[in-house]
Amino acid sequence: MTTDGRIHSISVSETKGDQKHNVGEATLVKNHGIDGDAHAGSERQVSLLPLESFSKLDGYLVDLKPGVFAENLTTTGLDFEGVSIGHRLVVGERIVLEVTQIGKECHNDCHIREVVGDCIMPREGVFVRVLKGGVIRVGDAIVWG
């Protein structure tokens, strides 16, 4: 499992069901999630997806930008293979996240699945809870801890 990665994008939405939009920074709140995100406070506080997974849907006539899979953090250079519940991530020098779920059931009205016939989030998305919060920014280091 590769340990060196970066935060490629941060995506949030204020209302569940709305498409997420990209922001340059966000505040992670302990035991809550991203401040201002509709999924904060839920069991799946923060979602992550490797940007490298997007290439698995290349060739389809759809514009796949970070946040389109409703992931909060899109990463680069961080290998999710072999990850299991309980693994920890460190963002920057002090923020600590813990994996609570791997994958999820895709909802019935998933736009990506409807257009492409497949969705990577159910297989490759990772959900974490915030053990130690703070401000994260695009470009921050993210490593398995």
Strand content: 35-45%
How many distinct beta strands? 11
How far is it from the N-terminal to the C-terminal residue, by CA? 11 Å
Helical fraction = under 10%
CATH C-level label: Mainly Beta
In spatial order, strands of the major sheet run 1-6-5-9-8-7-11
Which residues sit in consecutive blocks of at least 5 with pLDDT less than 50?
A: none
**Category from helices, strands and their pairing:** mainly beta
Number of domains: 1
Q: Secondary-structure element sequence?
A: EEEEEEEEHHEEE
What can you tell me about this protein's structure?
This protein is mainly beta and 145 residues long. It has a single domain (4-144), classed as M1 Pyruvate Kinase, Domain 3 (Beta Barrel). It has 2 helices and 11 strands, in the order ββββββββααβββ. The chain has helices spanning 111-116, 121-124, and strands at 4-12, 21-23, 25-29, 33-34, 46-50, 73-76, 88-91, 95-102, 126-132, 134-137, 141-144. It has a 7-stranded mixed barrel. Strands 4-3-10 form a 3-stranded antiparallel β-sheet, with no helix packed on it. A hairpin with an 8-residue loop joins β1 (4-12) and β2. The longest helix is centred in the last third of the chain and has 6 residues, at 111-116. The radius of gyration is 14 Å and the shape is globular. It starts with a strand and ends with a strand.
